Amino acid sequence: MQIPPEVTFRGMDHSDAMEAKIRERAEKLERFYDRIMSCRVVVEAPHRNHHKGKIYHVSLDVTVPGSELVVNRDPGANHAHEDPYVAIRDAFEAMERKLDAFANKKRREVKTHAEEGYARVTLVHPEQDFGMLESIDGRSIYFHRHAVKNQELEDIRSGEEVRFLEEMGEEGPQAIVVRVIGEEHPEK
């Protein structure tokens, strides 16, 4: 997180223990999306003139590049929220779901809008189901048999030109789509 979480208490005294719990939960939000810029949390006690149990309200405002995610639900008659820690837990769980959905949407956008690169095949091992490419900027890129779309791996030769889409794998860049280009291999 670029800016430390901002915690505000309204209609109640400041609680060091509650603030520590909030900061702990705020740090864990980065597991769901690692580009969080800021997080603001407001814990609000009910008005003093309520006749029934005090139901706490917690709102979260998380800023990420290009967007702002907010959890600001009226607890209504949820008596579990008479415990401020339960209200905090529920608000953070809702934000975790929002961040997870946001991150998934961003990943799909990146894959959808990825541009194909050009490369030359440098190595083919059909018996081991993989090959290697050299991109025009000199990088070595792994590809698996399943990434090849318009040929069989056995028919690809070193030196052939290909178009490819890549993503970062566990051991470096890998092509997730490989299409052989040239007169004898029309693109599909």
UniProtKB/TrEMBL annotation:
Pfam families: CSD, Ribosomal_S30AE. It comes from Thiohalorhabdus denitrificans. Residues 121-180 form the CSD domain. GO terms for molecular function: nucleic acid binding. This is Ribosomal subunit interface protein. The lineage of its organism: Bacteria, Pseudomonadati, Pseudomonadota, Gammaproteobacteria, Thiohalorhabdales. It comes from the Bacteria.
